[in-house]
Amino acid sequence: MSQLLANSACSSSKIGFQGVQNVITGETNKDVLSKNTDVFGSNSGDGLRGKLNKVVLAYSGGLDTSVIVPWLRENYGCEVVCFTADVGQGDLEMDGLEQKAKASGASQLVVKDLKEEFVQDYIFPCLRAGAVYERKYLLGTSMARPVIAKAMVDVAKEVGADAVSHGCTGKGNDQVRFELTFFALNPELKVVAPWREWEITGREDAVEYAKKHNIPIPVTKKSIYSRDRNLWHLSHEGDILEDPANEPKKDMYMMSVDPEDAPNQPEYLEIGIESGIPVSINERKLSPASLLSELNEIGGRHGIGRIDMVENRLVGMKSRGVYETPGGTILWAAARELESLTLDRETIQMKDMLALKYAELVYAGRWFDPLRHSMDAFMEKITETTTGSVTLKLYKGSVTVASRKSPYSLYREDISSFETGSIYNQADAAGFIRLYGLPMRVRAMLGKDK
Asked: What is the mean pLDDT of residues 171-182?
């Protein structure tokens, strides 16, 4: 906070100097303050760090973003428009946001429901691509950031803002995901990242700053974990999870029951898929967001989709996180099982190789990178025939396949069966094996010659 206090002192010195100049006109320092500054100390519209006209802030209503609103006004002399994206984080996080935003000094709050867009245009393409980061992570937060940042760029255009801001820390991945999207969609926008600029280092500093500026502090029970929730997943970080040796506590989970406490009877579920995209549950067609919401509920009660991993952050450090992705885990299993029928060996191998790069691009915030767009076109093309249904068995945390069927199945019982062989002549295998094993025979012969 020392730098903030120092900047405030400099601002006061400027006003004092102005007071001397106003002796001729008879104006007092009080007159100057009331005429040239607002309640946040911005002198003649200029902030302590510069001047911006209007900033769109990614706003959650928590302590950090509540403090960022007055900080932006004080340091950049700007109007602040708060923006909240509904990506399925739940009603509790959305309640009372407009009142909180305006109480913090924002001129308005813009809320957009992005749930259907999020699932259809971000989640389902990743699912179709088979994108998984470092063997486990199904990219929940990674997919949500570009859809939010894109909406912020749209709102900035709508309200005439010249800058955008976010509350991401300088240690995380999200700062990169937000800002790469800003760069890709509107490179003219200025970006303000308070956590990389201010002297606030923790909760106590933020509370002190809020009290100093008469900003009501959100009255919520502070979680010991850092969480991010959307329609795809819920992530948990911090507290005891910072030590990879610690087992997560049972009461930490919120989307899924402990597999030990799940029903003792399995549940069968049929997922319908068209061209690599899920469309139905038990033959009921649903919108993308509705389908995922229902699967979250079903998977959650069976303890599906819990992942505990140590991952490599984009900024270089390792971090430990626990993820709950019940509906996503069900869909991922269904999509892969259907591909076993509809894709040949070479295509599956190439798809799996590209999926690794696809996941890396999404994790690194390069959603709008031309490479990802090109890879997505490839994924869309090769999954044109990935249409059919998969029946899965859900039981105490596990997802196993019960049946698969597709009108484009490459599986032929008359070829694969051990009982029949009108198309496949088993005697042909002898010549194939001799040719296929020729390099091994040559190498063995070479050894004997020596």
From this structure: 96
